[in-house]
Amino acid sequence: MMKKIFSLVRQTVIISLITFGLTEIAFRIYHKINPSFMFYDPSSYNRWRGKPFSTDYGFQLNSRGFKDVEFTKQKAEGTYRIIGIGDSFAYSGVPYKHNFLTLLESKLNQGSQQPIELINMGIIAIGPKDYLSLFVNEGLELNPDMLLLSFYIGNDFSDNYKSQQDRRLLKVQDSYVLSFFDFLIKVNSKFEGNLYHHGIEYREDLPTVPDDFHLQEAKKRSYIFIKNQEKTDFSEHFDDAFSDLLKIKEICDRQNITLVVVLMPDEVQVIKNLRDKVVASYNFSPEKFDFRQPNKLLSQKMDKYYIYHLDLLEEFVTLGTQTALYKPNDIHWNIAGNRLAAEVIDKYLYQQFFSVDK
């Protein structure tokens, strides 16, 4: 009797494993042909999403909680559609009308022979793994011609690592079958959204945080600038973040979407006074730092995989010696910083994709 039960259990386990394996293969083939949001966690970035229809510096967020006007899923005929994905730099710490993506859309349309629509899908506090989920879950269905991805040098390398503590040990996205069932459970989940800059007036003259806290946070971020880190946290974080960029690139290539990655400089790279304080807070010589290191490594990698990219660092360093480009004691750009970013990106996009005359 026990022998028969054991044989039945063994057969059940074998059949289940075979079924699981075949289903996994089928899902992966399907996803390769037709990428679907079912195979990525559809709710990870919703923790930080804006509250739909709330106000941000007096501007009403749209029905999806994005800091942009309402848009239709269906793209208007003849329109070139760009979706902008990123963290708080895309969402922006300035009013909507001064956001670099808002300014960029206006600039692009000034010299274009066809309407250009730029949809801002920025969400505060997300990172590369969330960019991938957001793109697959909500970006692809908008049928974009271009994905403009904002990559913040300051914390996008470490964001994936920081969020690992919030994830389960079993990564469902590693298995398409488990991810599918995870999607079925979460598909009806709702999000309340968060309030940012709600009911307050924008001020550029007031420091966001105290000096000591600001310096401490800048020092924490600056581990990415220490040289010779072949087997350190930074190298691990770099590889993890870049793997997500590669996944986005692969999906864009299959869907005939142009991917452009914009590298957003950290304030430590731009503001010399802050940079000097950060270096002084460490116990070794300034020669141990290379404040262009992450940018150079990323550019080399993206060149290797033919990813269009634009590094804003040099323009920000140059103008930053004359004009304040960041809000006081804040990692985010002020109005002037957003304006500069829009101008540089506009010029790059026109030279690369639209016109060589602008």
Biggest sheet, strands in spatial order? 4-3-5-6-7
What is the CATH topology descriptor?
Rossmann fold
Q: Describe the biggest sheet? A: 5 strands, parallel
Order of helices and strands: HEEEHHEHEHHHHEHHHEHH
Helix residue percentage: 40-55%
- Which structural class do you get from the secondary structure elements? alpha/beta
Cα-to-Cα separation, first versus last residue:
83 Å
Mean pLDDT across every amino acid position: 88
- CATH-assigned homologous superfamily: SGNH hydrolase
The low-confidence parts are 165-170
Which outline best applies? globular
At the first level of CATH, what is the class? Alpha Beta
Instruction: Please report the number of helical segments.
Output: 13
The CATH architecture: 3-Layer(aba) Sandwich
**Portion in strands:** 5-15%
Radius of gyration: 22 Å
What number of structural domains do the residues give? 1
How would you describe this protein?
The chain is α/β, with parallel strands linked by helices. It has a single domain, classed as Rossmann fold. 46% of the residues lie in helices and 9% in strands. It has helices spanning 2-33, 88-91, 100-110, 128-139, 156-163, 176-186, 211-221, 233-254, 267-270, 272-281, 293-304, 313-320, 335-354, and strands spanning 55-56, 59-60, 80-85, 116-120, 146-152, 258-264, 308-311. The strands form two sheets. The chain has a five-stranded parallel β-sheet with strand order 4-3-5-6-7, with helices on both faces. Strand 1 and strand 2 (59-60) form a beta hairpin.
